């Protein structure tokens, strides 16, 4: 029997190879709730974008710790991606579609847009020099 409420937390170094680990770990945890293929895809994409942002923009490909928390209660899934990197000067500006500080990056400026499309709620809290927390929520079985 699946518990009504559950949570996990994982931490890893900010190496780009660990993005796949985060994506698979969170989707395996959420699989307990018997989500649809589309719901798992949405969650994997959102986690991938948030972790990639932490590694590339938060830590600028330097070594640091990325923390991923995932919890659920009933059919609501909440995911937090936390870094202690450089932070975002203007969250509002950063969440504007196609806004980027990395013009050379493929698909630059679409990370937050993808997260917002895939999840029901996306909240970003950031402080320059202290890091960023991306909190995402999704209701399964709508």
From TrEMBL:
<keyword id="KW-0547">Nucleotide-binding</keyword>
<keyword id="KW-0418">Kinase</keyword>
<dbReference type="InterPro" id="IPR050267">
    <property type="entry name" value="Anti-sigma-factor_SerPK"/>
</dbReference>
<dbReference type="InterPro" id="IPR036890">
    <property type="entry name" value="HATPase_C_sf"/>
</dbReference>
<dbReference type="InterPro" id="IPR003594">
    <property type="entry name" value="HATPase_dom"/>
</dbReference>
<dbReference type="GO" id="GO:0005524">
    <property type="term" value="F:ATP binding"/>
</dbReference>
<keyword id="KW-0808">Transferase</keyword>
<dbReference type="GO" id="GO:0016989">
    <property type="term" value="F:sigma factor antagonist activity"/>
</dbReference>
<keyword id="KW-0723">Serine/threonine-protein kinase</keyword>
<dbReference type="GO" id="GO:0004674">
    <property type="term" value="F:protein serine/threonine kinase activity"/>
</dbReference>
<dbReference type="InterPro" id="IPR010194">
    <property type="entry name" value="Anti-sigma_F"/>
</dbReference>
<comment type="similarity">
    <text>Belongs to the anti-sigma-factor family.</text>
</comment>
<dbReference type="Pfam" id="PF13581">
    <property type="entry name" value="HATPase_c_2"/>
</dbReference>
<keyword id="KW-0067">ATP-binding</keyword>
<comment type="function">
    <text>Binds to sigma F and blocks its ability to form an RNA polymerase holoenzyme (E-sigma F). Phosphorylates SpoIIAA on a serine residue. This phosphorylation may enable SpoIIAA to act as an anti-anti-sigma factor that counteracts SpoIIAB and thus releases sigma F from inhibition.</text>
</comment>
<dbReference type="GO" id="GO:0042174">
    <property type="term" value="P:negative regulation of sporulation resulting in formation of a cellular spore"/>
</dbReference>
<dbReference type="GO" id="GO:0030435">
    <property type="term" value="P:sporulation resulting in formation of a cellular spore"/>
</dbReference>
<feature type="domain" description="Histidine kinase/HSP90-like ATPase">
    <location>
        <begin position="38"/>
        <end position="142"/>
    </location>
</feature>
<keyword id="KW-0749">Sporulation</keyword>
<dbReference type="GO" id="GO:0030436">
    <property type="term" value="P:asexual sporulation"/>
</dbReference>
<protein>
    <recommendedName>
        <fullName>Anti-sigma F factor</fullName>
        <ecNumber>2.7.11.1</ecNumber>
    </recommendedName>
</protein>
């Amino acid at each position: 029997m699946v518990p009504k409420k559950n949570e996990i937390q994982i931490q890893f170094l900010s190496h780009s190879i660990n993005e796949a680990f985060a994506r698979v770990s969170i989707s395996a945890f959420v699989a307990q709730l018997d989500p649809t293929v589309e719901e798992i895809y949405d969650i994997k994409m959102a986690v991938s974008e948030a972790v990639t942002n932490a590694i590339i923009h938060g830590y600028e490909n330097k070594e640091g710790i990325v923390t991923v928390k995932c919890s659920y209660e009933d059919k609501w899934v909440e995911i937090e991606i936390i870094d202690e990197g450089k932070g975002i000067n203007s969250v509002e500006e950063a969440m504007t579609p196609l806004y980027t500080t990395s013009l050379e990056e493929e698909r630059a400026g679409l990370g937050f847009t993808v997260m917002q499309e895939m999840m029901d709620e996306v909240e970003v809290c950031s402080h320059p020099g202290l890091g960023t927390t991306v909190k995402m929520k999704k209701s399964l079985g709508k």
